[in-house]
């Protein structure tokens, strides 16, 4: 593959908790775009908000990204990549150097105002009826002597960007098109906090530039940060990356998917536990905000990469639908070989076999028989129940009355089953053929009735397959149970 060193995208999560589906989709889009143009995909951890950092979050985020199938070219645990460190807390010196540069250029200034002074100024502005309350810039005008004296006295300070007055900022967003801002509405925001820790808006620009990031796909909640970041690029005279702000995903369990509201269904772990295929989840998330040019719905990772060129991204919010995800998972399940299906289902099957106290080898053919019915591996437990029921099923009154009306069918079926010498799919097929012929019912009706009588369910594996897997003795035991009232 020809590499394209000018295409570099990053996913920049804050390690503040588990990765939610919205974040995962952002990562996926960055990855697909990078891969489409033979570029690089980088994961950088933005851990400047120390209070909100969460232990193991980095590890769990990387695990989630890799689980879903993303290959990370550069991050905290990859050997490759000359643009590290890939964790902001390890880049302190770099930020400091750039702060010095902005101070020297007079694009930024030290602000020695205490929280009390700032609060008082805000109150004052409110009283004056000022709507866009902002920092009043009193430290912008400090003389070099005053600054030196404050530093000498070890006064605490933060560093603010000096926003140029009355400028217009325009940029072209890949999703939203032209976006326009006026500097009049932007406060002299903080670049470096009094603790010496950089703010997100500052660190993100330094890192994106030094890591040579060409495109930034991120959540639309960052649109309002973009002009601030553009002003920083301008202050440094750096090239501005291409931005693409992604619309939010509406969850079917909470109003919007966010990591601040913990609803398990909004997080990847829920789908891993339920046994969804990574590719199905990637496929579904990709479609939440993007329409492939040919409207293909079921896509493999290489197909998504081939089609994802940053076009066809939706401006409208997308709605997460578990039904659609289930359907997509089913389509991907259908594409598996038997061997792969069993391999992937194994953790679920082992658990079921343990609970039921049976051998794993017995459960495999059963699992294959219910394959077309399940939406995800967690459904195996329910679908396999038919094999764990004993021969004395608890039919409801409706089924019992069906028995009464179809005693002939039951008797015939039992008689035919009894006569089978070689138990296999073909001989069972013959039994069903003969029984249906004699019953004078349609094939569909005959099979539905037999299915209800054998499993107490209206749906399930293919009938001949099911009968074969039950075995002759179990079928005889069940039919014996059916016909007992007649015997008495
Ligand atoms: N750390 C930011 C977040 O998690 C990244 C935003 C960005 O991609 O610039 O939202």
In short:
The protein is mostly helical and 488 residues long. The chain is 48% helix and 9% strand.
Describe this structure in words.
The chain is mainly alpha-helical and 488 residues long. It has 21 helices and 11 strands. It has helices at 21-36, 57-67, 92-104, 115-127, 144-152, 200-210, 226-236, 268-273, 278-287, 301-307, 322-334, 338-356, 360-370, 380-383, 385-388, 397-405, 407-419, 425-439, 443-455, 463-470, 472-487, and strands at residues 8-11, 40-43, 108-111, 158-161, 168-173, 177-182, 190-192, 215-219, 242-246, 249-250, 318-319. The strands form 5 sheets. It has a 3-stranded antiparallel beta sheet. The protein has a two-stranded parallel sheet with strand order 1-2. Helix 6 (200-210) crosses helix 7. It is elongated. The chain starts with 7 loop residues before the first strand and ends with a helix. Residues 12-14, 46, 204, 218, 222 line the site of glutamic acid.
Query: How many helical elements?
Result: 21
Ends distance: 77 Å
Write down the oligomeric state.
single chain
Helix/strand-derived category reads mainly alpha
Task: Tell me, rounded to a whole number, the average pLDDT.
Answer: 92
User: How big a fraction of the residues is strand?
Assistant: 5-15%
Radius of gyration: 32 Å
Shape, principal axes of CA atoms? elongated
Strand order of the largest sheet: 3-4-7
Low-confidence stretches: none
Bound chemical compounds: glutamic acid
Largest sheet: 3 strands, antiparallel
- As a percent range, the share of helical residues equals 40-55%
Number of strands: 11
């Amino acid at each position: 593959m020809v590499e394209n060193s000018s295409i570099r995208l990053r996913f920049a999560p804050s390690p503040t908790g588990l990765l939610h589906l919205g974040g995962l989709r952002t990562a996926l889009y960055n990855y697909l775009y990078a891969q489409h143009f033979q570029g690089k995909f980088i994961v950088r951890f933005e851990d400047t908000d120390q209070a909100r950092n969460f232990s193991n979050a980095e590890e769990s985020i990387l695990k989630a990204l890799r689980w879903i199938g993303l290959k990370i070219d550069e991050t905290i645990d990859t050997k490759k990549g000359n643009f590290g460190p890939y964790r902001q807390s390890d880049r302190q010196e770099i930020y400091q150097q750039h702060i010095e540069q902005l101070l020297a250029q007079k694009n930024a200034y030290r602000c020695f105002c205490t929280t009390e002074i700032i609060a008082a100024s805000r109150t004052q502005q409110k009283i004056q009826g000022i709507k866009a309350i902002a920092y009043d810039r009193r430290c912008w005008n400090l003389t070099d002597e005053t600054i030196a004296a404050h530093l000498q006295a070890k006064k605490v300070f933060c560093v603010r960007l000096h926003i140029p007055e009355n400028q217009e900022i325009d940029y072209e967003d890949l999703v939203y098109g032209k976006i326009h801002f006026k500097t009049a509405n932007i406060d002299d925001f903080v670049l470096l906090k009094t603790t010496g820790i950089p703010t997100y808006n500052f660190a993100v620009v330094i890192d994106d530039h030094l890591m040579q990031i060409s495109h930034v796909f991120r959540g639309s909640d960052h649109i309002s940060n973009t002009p601030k970041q553009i002003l920083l690029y301008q202050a440094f005279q750096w090239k501005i990356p291409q931005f693409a702000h992604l619309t939010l995903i509406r969850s079917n369990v909470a109003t919007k998917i966010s990591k601040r509201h913990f609803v398990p269904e909004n997080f990847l772990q829920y789908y891993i536990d339920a046994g969804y295929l990574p590719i199905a989840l990637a496929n579904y998330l990709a479609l939440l905000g993007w329409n492939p040019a040919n409207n293909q719905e079921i896509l493999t990772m290489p197909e998504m990469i081939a089609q994802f060129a940053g076009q066809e991204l939706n401006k409208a919010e997308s709605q997460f639908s578990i039904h659609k995800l289930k359907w997509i998972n089913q389509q991907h399940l259908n594409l598996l070989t038997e061997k792969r299906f069993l391999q992937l289902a194994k953790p679920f099957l082992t658990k079921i076999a343990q609970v039921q106290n049976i051998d794993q080898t017995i459960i495999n053919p059963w699992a294959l028989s219910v394959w077309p019915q399940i939406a995800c591996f967690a459904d195996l437990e329910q679908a396999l129940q038919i094999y764990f029921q004993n021969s004395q099923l608890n039919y409801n009154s409706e089924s019992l009355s069906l028995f009464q009306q179809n005693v002939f069918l039951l008797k015939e079926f039992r008689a035919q089953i009894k006569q089978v010498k070689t138990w296999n799919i073909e001989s069972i097929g013959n039994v069903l053929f003969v029984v249906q012929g004699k019953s004078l019912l349609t094939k569909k009706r005959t099979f539905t009735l037999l299915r209800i009588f054998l499993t107490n369910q209206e749906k399930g594996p293919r009938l001949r397959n099911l009968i074969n897997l039950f075995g002759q003795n179990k079928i005889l035991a069940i039919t014996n149970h059916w016909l007992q009232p007649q015997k008495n």
